[in-house]
């Protein structure tokens, strides 16, 4: 949340449409979020400057991961939209097969964004750089990349199937959905 167009966490000048601070990366639109205590409780000018510098360094250290997560979210949205469009072409909306595949894509979406939110929470909750957090972020990003890759494979298989006119051949699509479910189940094992 922005107070007078400045970040309540680091004091950075904001634009009205900002939902995350461009400087410290903190989420701004949640009313129940509390600002970083070390930033607000500093009393001397020197201490405040040191804390701000640390916050900027943290932001820069995790900004690479944050950018990756944001790009993966955009890519996933695009892939999912195309897959749903192709599913509607392959299976008319009234068919039971469409409902089954659509349900699997929906489950994939929920789990993808759960992992993305978890990665973003790690970044936003961190007040200093940690190798352990960086490694956890790399694992989350790897999982997100795997889900996007499976969605891409599903998209490709649907395109091939529709182009070939294989109305009865859903085996490859079934296999890809099963692989996506296995991947999601392996992610759930770590939660």
In percent terms, what proportion of residues is strand?
under 5%
How is the largest sheet built, in terms of strand order? 1-2
Give the overall pLDDT as a whole number. Answer: 74
Helix content: 55-70%
Poorly predicted spans: 30-59
Radius of gyration: 21 Å
Tell me the major beta sheet.
2 strands, antiparallel
User: How far is the N terminus from the C terminus?
Assistant: 29 Å
What does it look like?
- 69% of the residues lie in helices and 2% in strands.
- It has helices at residues 37-40, 45-90, 96-125, 131-164, 171-188; strands at residues 2-3, 6-7.
- A hairpin with a 2-residue loop joins strand 1 and strand 2 (6-7).
List keywords for this structure.
2 strands; 5 helices; mainly alpha; 191 residues; 2% strand; two-stranded antiparallel sheet
Write the layout of secondary structure elements.
Blueprint: E1 2-3, E2 6-7, H1 37-40, H2 45-90, H3 96-125, H4 131-164, H5 171-188
Antiparallel strand pairs: 1-2
